[in-house]
Amino acid sequence: MLTATHMHPHSAARNLRFVVAAGVIVFAAAMLGILLRPIGYLAVFWPANAIFLGLLLRQPELARLPTFVSVFIGYAAADLVTGGQWGTSVMLTLANMIGITAGWLILRRFDRKTLHMQGQYSALVLLFGSGVAALVSAAIGGPVAHSAFNAPLMQGFVMWWVSEWMNHMMLLPLLMALPSKQLPPLPSKAPVWPWHAMPVLTAAALEVASYVIGGPGALTFSLPALLWCALTYRISSTALITLIVCTSKTIAISVGSFDFTPEHFSEVVSIRLGMTMLILGPLSVAGAHAARSALLQRLNYAANHDSLTDVLSRHGFVQACNLLFKRLSHDGTPIAVLMLDLDHFKRVNDSHGHATGDRLLRDFTRTLAQTLRPQDVLGRIGGEEFAVVLPQISAADAATIAERLCNAVRTEAFLTTQQEPMRATVSIGVAHVTRLQRHDSIETLLRDADIALY
Predict the structure, then answer these.
(1) In sequence order, which residues have a C-beta less than 8 Å from that of residue 425 and are 6 or more positions away?
(2) Residues of the chain with pLDDT under 70
């Protein structure tokens, strides 16, 4: 739905800039498409529609009447300054914008994660939405192409549809996969060079081989490398590589074989649909791989963190400390382990209920985290018992930090679930090692700190 709302002057000025920018971007993209089209027919590559649809999906506040007016002017101006006729320009612009609106109305119903290529079925969703957008656009643009370029009606309709669909699938996934403030980035492994460059280099080599060998099968030569890219890189990188590969194929075919005009109708339709499906493969694999990686990351986090306080669980704490001890034992670094016990916690549960007890544990953990240093490791050992590892610290400084924690908890104004004030104290035992050795373990130091606590 296109809306008009009252807003603050600063917001109005900002939105006006966005509206004008949308028109300018579409004008520039339409000019590029016009310059790439064969003489007397539709463009070989038309990026304007995918870019505008991407803008609407990424910035929902742009879906307002002024934006559509600005973009309409951008489309029409590009066609008119390159010699188009008024009537044809208006009809072509309407075909583009109505198709985009249809795609937007469908795709905006999906959640942001799916639209930003972070879902398992993101590529299929974009394939469906862009296919409908292309079909609606072709229903209007096909007759216009028939009238303006003397193309057979059905051929004009089909060529518009498959061309628009391919253009959307080449650009839209990349635009939607770009980083978004609304969503955290997907997990990825640190690159290991030079092996990290092998998938894209293989894609380039197979693409060159397709031009040398030629033939109808050359269209899919680069597919294995693109799938390798999908399993190696972020989905935005995979989308960019796929765009480059398909663009190079389009240019090579149009220069070396034939023009994308009705005279080569069957070949054009076959190639356009083939490239659309070629794009779908690596993007689907990349989306599924990214969704799997995100799920594994969430499962790993849940397995190693306490669900109530969100600090490391006992298992996660021991694992993190083992890695830390292994690294620090090479240098003989001093280290301290604190065992903390929240005093009279059972009394809190008995007097105020377990909900208050849970709230106290969360607030207590937050107080500890705010008092500790960034390099310190905090974990919940069980119940009201917590542990802290203080790396690279003297015995005196460890005692000072323990006192600081006691004072922070003692002076904190905790609240019950009924918003009644409540005080708490903590007892802390300290175990210190002057030079960490290979045989030292977190279990031994936890036991020593526990003895010191009691």
Answers:
(1) 343, 344, 406, 409, 410
(2) 1-12, 37-43, 149, 185-190, 254-264
Q: Are 308 and 372 contacting, i.e. CB atoms less than 8 angstroms apart?
A: no
Structure tokens belonging to residue 330: 């090479």
**According to the model, what pLDDT value does residue 1 have?**
44
DSSP string, 23-45: HHHHHHHHHHHHHTSPTTS--S-
Backbone angles phi, psi at 430, to 5 degrees: -120, 130
So what's the pLDDT on residue 193?
73
Give the Cα-Cα-Cα angle 284, 286, 287 (nearest 5 degrees): 65
Cβ–Cβ under 8 Å, residues 367 and 429: no
What 3-state class would DSSP assign to 307? coil
Do residues 22 and 70 make contact, with C-beta atoms less than 8 angstroms apart? yes
Residue 109 neighbours by CB distance under 10 Å: 11
CA 247 to chain CA centroid, Å, is 24
Note the pLDDT tens digit of each residue in 367-390.
999 999 999 999 999 999 999 999
Structure tokens that stand for 192 in this block: 């290991």
| 68 vs 2: CA distance, rounded Å | 9
Instruction: Give yes or no for a contact between 130 and 102, defined as CB atoms under 8 angstroms apart.
Output: no
DSSP assignments along 308-351, one per residue? TT-SB-HHHHHHHHHHHHHHHTTTT--EEEEEEEETTHHHHHHH
Angle at 282 between CA 225 and CA 50, to 5 degrees: 125
Structure tokens, 269: 């339709």
Pairing of strands 335-342, 385-391: antiparallel
> What 3-state class would DSSP assign to 182?
coil
- Give dist(CA 79, CA 256) in Å, integer: 27
Residue 186, Ramachandran bin (φ over 0: left; ψ between -120 and 50: alpha; else beta): beta
**Residue 40 pLDDT:** 47
Backbone angles phi, psi at 273, to 5 degrees: -65, -40
User: Which amino acid belongs to residue 21?
Assistant: A
State how far the Cα of 296 lies from the Cα of 307, in Å rounded to an integer: 17
Long-range contact set of residues 358-362: C-beta below 8 Å, sequence gap at least 24: 358/308, 359/415, 359/416, 359/417, 360/414, 360/422, 360/424, 361/308, 361/309, 362/308, 362/309
Do residues 102 and 108 lie in contact, with contact meaning Cβ atoms separated by under 8 Å?
no
What does the block give as tokens for 208? 């060159």
